[in-house]
Amino acid sequence: VHRENRGRDAIEIVQELPVMAGPQPGGQGVRSGPVILPRIEPDFVRHIAESMGLTNLTINGNIYICEQVSHLLKRVVHNAHKFSIHGRRSKVVGADVEAALKLAGLEDLTPLGHTLPNPPPMVQVPNVFGGEDLFVPDDIEIDLAELREHPPQALPAAPYLR
């Protein structure tokens, strides 16, 4: 958010944002109109700063952080939506958000969600349902004797907030 936007209502700023348009499910054409994008509130930033031990954050610093994070979030959401349109999808997927984060220079925040370091092995089941091949996850045998000998690790202490 630019300096001239300071002190203005969030609704006024959102109404001036470019409209994100794209194909609608069911072939209804292109959606138009203002898109309400998220805005980070100063109370939320103050609460996060206090939970991190930063108690001397000024009001101007708090507002500046809110504006910068809100602007970055809007830019990432807008770019992710553009990636989904270029990919001819009606919904934004995780890969679109990761590409938008990479475009914003935030590669450290990717990958999003859960990723498996080693994908499960797949086994081919031939001639199923009209001659098509089917791939299913391979059943992994677990040695119960080994699990019995090695008890699970102790859980860490419960987290607490000050």
Can you tell me about this structure?
With 162 residues, the protein is mainly alpha-helical. The protein has a domain at 3-109: Orthogonal Bundle (Histone, subunit A). It is built from five helices and two strands. Pfam families: TAF. InterPro entries: Histone-fold (IPR009072), TAF6 (IPR037796), TAF_TATA-bd_Histone-like_dom (IPR004823).
Provide a compact summary of the structure.
This protein is mainly alpha-helical.
Q: Could you tell me how far the N terminus lies from the C terminus, measured between alpha carbons in angstroms?
A: 33 Å
Name the CATH superfamily classification of the domain at 3-109. Histone, subunit A
Structural class: mainly alpha
Order of helices and strands: HHHHEEH
The count of DSSP E runs of length 2 or more, i.e. the number of strands, is 2
Taking pLDDT < 50 over at least 5 consecutive residues as the criterion, the unreliable ranges are: 7-25
CATH topology of the domain at 3-109: Histone, subunit A
Report mean pLDDT, rounded to a whole number: 75
Profile the largest sheet.
2 strands, antiparallel
Task: Using the alpha-carbon principal axes, give the shape.
Answer: flat
The strands making up the biggest β-sheet line up spatially as 1-2
Helicity level, as a percent range?
25-40%
Characteristics of this structure?
162 residues, mainly alpha, Histone, subunit A, two-stranded antiparallel ribbon, 5 helices, 38% helix, 8% strand, flat
How are the SSEs ordered, and which strands pair?
Elements: H1 10-16, H2 42-51, H3 59-86, H4 94-103, E1 122-128, E2 132-137, H5 144-149
Antiparallel strand pairs: 1-2
